[in-house]
Amino acid sequence: MTAVPGRSARLSPNQLQKQEQIVEAARVVLARDGLAGCTVRAIADAGPLTKSAIHYYFADIDVLIDRAMAAHITTFIADLRKISAKHDHPSERLFAALEAFLDEFSGRPNAAFLWFEYWIAAGRAQHPQAIDVMLTSITELLAELLAPLDVEDPRARARALLSYLLGAIVQQRVRRRPFAALRGDIEALCFANYG
């Protein structure tokens, strides 16, 4: 799952647009069919370009999957930012984003499976950078939301909070709990004084 160096640098604006259309089609397929279903044929069927065009722009399907997953995360984080920005108080911003985070996965369980499948595949392919980029971008958002709340070491709390959220995603598949029930756990994790 490594990028083809320099391929996009030589593309015209029209070609870059076609490449983005392929990435968008891959996002659709990943969301619908998961990692195993994300084949060149499925991507071609979901988008406006042929299998040949997909092979031209992405010689390696893993590069395309990396780009599509990165696009998923970018959109997801942008949506969380929009949701949190609707609130005035920093704690309201944090909890609105966290509730939206968990709602995304309870409303679309395939999204959780996709994330975990992707991380397993990237790990097996000895490509932990893809996982790190995803986790870092979410951790940065959480640290930004925690910083105005005057918590000790917002980055460390953000990492712990992300670990909690990932576990909660799995637990919610087994036994659904409303966000209000999880909020107490989150408050303890974020605001407890360990000093």
From TrEMBL:
Residues 16-76 form the HTH tetR-type domain. Gene3D superfamilies: Tetracycline Repressor, domain 2. It comes from the Bacteria. Keywords: DNA-binding. InterPro entries: Homeodomain-like_sf, HTH-type_TetR-like_transc_reg, HTH_TetR, Tet_transcr_reg_TetR-rel_C_sf. It holds the Pfam family TetR_N. Residues 39-58 bind DNA. This is AcrR family transcriptional regulator. It comes from Amycolatopsis roodepoortensis. The lineage of its organism: Bacteria, Bacillati, Actinomycetota, Actinomycetes, Pseudonocardiales.
